[in-house]
Amino acid sequence: MGKDYTNIKTMKQLELQIRQLENDAVKCEDIIRKDLEYAAYFYRPRRLISSIGVFIKHFVMNFFRSMVIILGLGVALNACSSGGDPKEFIYSIDQFADIEVLRYQVPNWDALTLQQKEYVYHLSEAAKAGRDIIWVQNFKYNLPIRKVLEAIIEKCEGKSGPEFDEFMIYAKRVFFSNGIHHHYALDKIIPGCSMDFFASLMDEAGCSDAKEELLPIIFDPVLYPQMVYQGTDKDLVAASAVNFYEGVTTAEVNAFYDAREVPGDPRPISHGLNSRLVKVDGKIVEQVYKVDGLYGEALKVIIGHLEAAAEVAENDLQKRYIAELIEYYKTGDLHIWDRYNVSWVSDVDSDIDFINGFVEDYSDPLGRKATYEGIVQYRDKEASRRTEIISENAQWFEDNSPVDPRFKKAEVKGVSAKVINVACIAGDNYPATAIGINLPNAAWIRKEHGSKSVTIANITKAYDKATEQSPKSVLTEFAWDQEEIDFCKKYGSETGDLHTDLHECLGHGSGQLLPGVSPNALKEYSSTIEESRADLFALYYIADPKLVELGILDNPEAYKAEYMNYIRNGIFTQFTRVELGKTNTQAHMQNRKLISEWVFEHGQDENVIEKKVRDGKTYFVINDFERLRELFGEFLCEIQRIKSEGDYEAAKTLVLKYAVNIDPDLHKEVRERYAQLNLKPYRGFINPDIVPVEKDGKVIDYKIVYGESFIDQMMEYGRKYATL
Questions:
Q1: Which residues contact 165 (CB under 8 A, 6 or more apart)?
Q2: N or C terminus: which one in the chain shows less Cβ crowding within 10 Å?
Q3: How much is the pLDDT for 21?
Q4: What does the pLDDT average to over 282-309?
């Protein structure tokens, strides 16, 4: 039968196998149906008889496979009745295209006080109220397209058939990406159904008036093909669909903001962070995000929830920086944004914390303008001890870094690190989210006031648990031998978390710019270089004996698991996420490729990393871990120099040489091997609902309710958080 069903041990594995069986049956049925139609139409008896024979064989095969599945069900149910956990939390709730949707748990919720729960509730509502903003920021037509999708799903409930199934896959992909461009690859998503069928759905849903404008945008691959263009043949701004600019060129944008910078300003504001730059009647105009400006209606709703949150804040410091954030949203004044960040970064004692604002500039081809995001979190006190040890020793790590002393901070200030659990993710952090965060981004604030770093425990746990519940893994397919597999299983999760801690807590917070160097000197390459710098810092120090001395690691060899996983992913397996023929465009993927390719090339003479082929399959095997650490240190020195000196040309040379182009043969191989695993390369989440519990007209508690449907949450959010 080609598949082994004897390893079904959990209800989740059973569910995945049944889903795969259903998918295989539908695909095979569709192929055979078309074959039968073809044979009958052209009166080819032999082909018709052959196709009928295949159909019968397919039916019989699936009958027996179904019997095995049913037996597996009996085994699984028996295991539950014999001591297995019938209440096992199922993390994976949906799969489509290249995406798996998970749930995350909110641990120790009832340990929070009623006031803290209410604070989290209002902060979460504030975060979700900005959902429409990220949709419009990503592409100017995203919101009207989303409203069409929502109308079709609502009006065509109960509809079925192959083309409608393809429509639903498209809708889910668009919902997941907050727009019609892939959330990671940034390429335009094209529906699998026909344009005529899509048009008929629009008619049925009462959206006929939008067909002429929207159908070409949805279906024509030439129109708005990339959300962020990072090539060299076109103008970066003009060729990018992201909605930060209109009618202006890269040269005009750079000239506009260069003229606003004050040379030698020790505390520069982040010019352009919270605005859209457009040309109106031949004049360049900046449209600022504020209550009486762009996105004003959404910001008013956010402010209302922030005001409610301030009423139940844990302390006066929280109330102060919420007031500053509200004032920033009202005025759009970036000086107030900096003042808010200084206050926010000084709050290291509160149990509840949040992020709400225009924060990261990854989606801007010039690395200047930020997308809206929100996170609401609370401290995991027990797990935070690890990050506290790291932050307490931040000065030691800075002093012992291999980089040029000119680029080191003489005094590391205010490095705060903790492990947290999220209660809500929103904006550009939803549905796909980070596992670690380090803020604020302004270099002068980090230097004078420090930074806050978090590792998100319940998100990391959800990833790990979902992997455990899946019957197959990337590790077993792409690791060289069983020894490597066993070692990575033993230490991979621990060292992966530690890498995140070092990356966020120390990596981003390390080093300094030389006087007079603009924070935007690296322009479109700034994000890739900055992520590379933080990763290299983590890779260099994760192998340092200091971590064993501090009691963070108990095995001095454990770091090797992270080295194995990092190289394997950076040089090879991460490209399962990229379509054949496409280049590598996402900043984090570029950073991993840049590092892995650079150390591979510079260690070739010593065979530090060896490319091996066995049975037609490629593997990358580390032969010299100590020398690899030295190479990480050498590259860290160069990346920090580029950052500190603002060496744009050196950054450009490195990124274009090592980070963009993918070896076509390796690319083809990794996608084919990955496809056999029936796994999804991208994962994201739905949020749990925080539901007020009332008694006699008064809220007496807030309970966590875990959803079970991705599409249901998308539809609910479309109704509840429509602000633009």
A1: none
A2: N
A3: 52
A4: 98
